[in-house]
Design brief:
This protein is an alpha/beta fold. It has helices at residues 2-16, 70-78, 98-107, 167-179, 199-209, 219-224, and strands at residues 20-30, 40-46, 66-69, 84-88, 111-116, 130-134, 159-164, 188-192, 214-215.
């Protein structure tokens, strides 16, 4: 019976790898954001997003892409010989098979992070995955899409990111940080919208107000400007 059970499990696992997701690109670069900044990472960018943030720099991932199996993705990732993988978009959770992909990556021992808009439920994401969850500010144009219930599912492995467009966004974010005690949930990242808000100004505001947040810039843009991959 144990042998039969083993065969069934193996067959199920094999079948799961035949599931498909729509992918815009897979590339190897340095992680530019979060606590993983600077680490050599494989990025799997899934296609599609239900949001339209004003500062979005990946609009090319809204449409198109190629339908590939999870097995193919795992093979591509293995070529780059790194343990760090980031699944991003678009909005990766808009595709049902994203959850299976995240689990397959964790099963193979990768250190996996998921970059998500904060508009979709994160509760079913494999607990071994670090969830990088956006809180959309008024300046993004999508503040009404924040799924606040997500905060109850986050833990110290996760991170909350707020991209700020101007000082009004900063004031709003400071209030949300306090009211919802975001820093007691997990690390909080304040990031200046590239080309809109000075990183120096943001750093000075955070220091002035003694906020328990990490100020981050997009390292990949510091290194390579507007290039998507390197």
């Amino acid at each position: 019976m144990a042998v039969v059970d083993h065969v069934v499990v193996a067959d199920d696992a094999s079948a799961a790898l035949k599931a498909t997701v729509r992918v815009t690109e897979i590339f190897f670069s340095l992680q530019g954001e979060t606590s993983r900044a600077g680490l050599p990472t494989v990025f799997v960018r899934l296609t599609g997003c239900p949001l339209r943030c004003g500062y979005c720099d990946t609009a090319y991932a809204f449409h198109g892409g190629t339908s590939v199996t999870l097995e193919h993705i795992l093979s591509e990732i293995a070529r780059h010989q790194t343990r760090y993988v980031t699944v991003t978009g678009g909005e990766p959770l808009a595709q049902k098979s994203c959850l299976a992909l995240l689990t397959a990556l964790a099963d193979r021992g990768y250190s996996v992070s998921l970059e998500t808009s904060g508009a979709l439920d994160v509760s079913r994401v494999d607990p071994r995955v670090s969830r990088i969850v956006d809180v959309k500010t008024p300046g993004s144009g999508e503040v009404d899409r924040n799924l606040w219930d997500n905060l109850a599912h986050l833990n110290s492995r996760d991170e909350i990111k707020l991209v700020l467009c101007d000082e009004a966004d900063y004031v709003w974010a400071r209030q949300i940080l306090t009211e919802r005690a975001l820093d007691r949930i997990c690390p909080v990242l304040f990031s200046p919208s590239y080309g809109q808000l000075s990183a120096t100004d943001l750093a000075e505001w955070v220091l002035r107000d003694h906020l328990p947040v990490r100020v981050q810039v997009q390292l990949h843009k510091v290194l390579w400007g507007e290039q998507r991959a390197r």
